[in-house]
């Protein structure tokens, strides 16, 4: 991709799944990359597996003081933040009537407040330097209802609305977009779904399979590059045509 070599990239939730694949892709593109992740063991593994990484920084995206400190450390390590991949997120599979107040707060705190915290801290740096790209991880669950994930859907719908508002306010110097993946075979997905459930999902996706984290990482790389210089204020869906035919509405309530 044009214009990624030498860029300073911060990836939240960057120690596993889509985040780790995205960190690896930007390293391959010649960028400086810092990841931010709350999981110390996962950070240590990534440092071993990705020797080109600039740093793996520990922080809880829901804690504003930790976020401010982590963003400041990333700027110190790389000299700037040119690109933010705002990817940290969690999900809990449960029935709507069973969601506790604590579970609701936890999911919204990471998935929505966390995105806001890191985006605002990075955007203040970017506007000061006169340019930047912010890419938020949303989800098809933010625009289409899925059983068992009401809190997750609410949080991702919020990310989409936040993205659109940010794009208007931060233009023309900072570009802001969201990527809405469908089903991606990540450790988080694998932990919540049995083999039978994964097979059932695959049969409902026209592409016949889950996406790989590397495929989502490729879209992040494109949207961060100079090739996407006119792309801002949009939500890019990558779901193997799952939502195109409304297939997710065929879910049973078993």
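^ structure tokens above, recovered residues below v
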């Amino acid at each position: 991709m044009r214009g990624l070599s030498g860029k300073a990239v911060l990836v939240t939730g960057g120690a596993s799944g889509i985040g780790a694949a995205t960190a690896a892709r930007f390293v391959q593109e010649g960028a400086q990359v810092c990841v931010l992740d709350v999981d110390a063991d996962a950070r240590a593994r990534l440092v071993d597996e990705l020797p080109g990484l600039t740093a793996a920084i520990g922080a809880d995206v829901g804690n504003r003081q930790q976020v401010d400190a982590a963003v400041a450390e990333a700027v110190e390590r790389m000299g700037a933040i040119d690109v933010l991949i705002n990817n940290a997120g969690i999900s809990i599979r449960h029935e709507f009537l069973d969601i506790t107040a604590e579970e609701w707060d936890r999911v919204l705190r990471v998935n929505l407040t966390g995105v806001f915290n890191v985006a605002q801290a990075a955007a203040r740096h970017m506007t000061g330097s006169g340019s930047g790209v912010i890419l938020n991880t949303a989800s098809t669950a933010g625009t289409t209802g899925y059983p068992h994930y009401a809190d997750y859907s609410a949080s991702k719908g919020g990310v989409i609305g936040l993205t659109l508002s940010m794009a208007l306010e931060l233009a023309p110097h900072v570009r802001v977009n969201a990527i809405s993946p469908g089903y991606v075979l990540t450790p988080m997905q694998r932990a919540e779904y049995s083999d039978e459930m994964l097979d059932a999902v695959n049969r409902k996706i026209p592409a016949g399979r889950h996406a790989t984290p590397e495929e989502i990482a490729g879209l992040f790389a494109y949207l961060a590059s100079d090739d996407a210089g006119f792309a801002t204020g949009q939500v890019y869906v990558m779901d193997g045509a799952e939502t195109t035919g409304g297939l997710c509405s065929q879910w049973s309530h078993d």
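Residues 8-240 form a domain with the Rossmann fold fold (CATH 3.40.50.720).
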